[in-house]
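Hey, weird one. I pasted the Acyl-CoA desaturase sequence into the form twice and got a warning about non-standard characters only the second time. First submission, copied straight from the form history:
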Amino acid sequence: MSTVSANAAEKRKRYWAPTILFASTGLLALTAVPLYGFEYGYSWQQWLAFLLVTGLCGISISAGNHRLWTHKTYKTHWLMRLLFALFSAATLQNTTLNWCAAHRAHHRYTDNNDLDPHSSARGLWFSHLDWMMREYPSGMKSHDNVRDLQRDKIVMWQHRNYLPIAIAMNLAICLVFGWITGDIIAMFLLAVVLRMVINHHAAFALNSFGHRWGHRKYKSDISARDNPLINIFAFGEGYHNYHHAFPGDFRNGVGWLAYDPSKWLIKVLSWFGITRQLRTATDMQVQKTVQEVKFEHTEQQLKELEAGDQENWRSLLDRERADFCKTMEEWRVLLAERRKIAQDGPAKKWKLAAIQTKIRDLKFRLKMQSRRLRLLVRQSRLNAATASSIGFGK
């Protein structure tokens, strides 16, 4: 019997605190929230407060727990770190220290059923909720991988005082916004209950649905996927395949217009010196991974052909791969030349412009190569279908 099946056969200890939390907030969101709305209604000010608090809590998980503390993709002022610690506690998704420890383990052991805390290979229910509600060996708490965070005073202050901070934050949200909008009950239902359910399941959906449905454009050997629907509610975290390919990038959505509120916040704050040392994957690294995945898909599709046809197309694919390696080497050389250019000097701008022009040419070559790979698959399938029909006719 495998380790996973043996573990499944055992009776698991239930963690009652998260079980009751998820069940009660979910039930209230489905019943009390709409019933109170039908009976008394919610004003636009109350909905605005709900959106504001939902955003603050979601951003604190995404830009705080995830990109700042787990992956250290940037640095920021201690006041920002304090705000992230307070509002991430309000989400009731565990302490920042525990959250980061579990997420680092997930990245290190992705899809390993014995070591990934919420491996998607164990099913949607497990990866969405059950891993937090029962005792599993893969989810046992360990701080061995967050020794650096144990030296962070704000992280440890929140960790030691998590429960009173979480309770105080939710009470403050309820009372302050309730006083401002004139209805404490409405604010409890919207800005505490409904907000918590949305924050919870947007984050949990990344572990479950984000590893089941979507695109794998950057890394094809893991289950993480880019899912645009989840992305709407998860503050840019839905670019999950890109994130697993480049976890050290402060962006999840690469392009400036790609919907990623956490990226926009971090970048805008850097203009005022509040955030700094923003880490990104280079354009060459991104283009390289995308093209490598395209080669993998092309080769896999060509393997479906009969043995004789495979040989006819494999030489073309090998030629394209050699051209790809050549392009990447030329790009690497250009980047090295760009780094060597002196910061001062009359010819600096001209040299940089010339290098950038050559890099654009290399990008165009990769774009045309992608078209050729698609054509290669299409033509090979067409030839195979034609040969099959002729054979059938005989």
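That's the output from the first submission. The warning seems to come from a hidden character in my clipboard, not from the data itself. Residues 1-9 have pLDDT under 50 and may be disordered.
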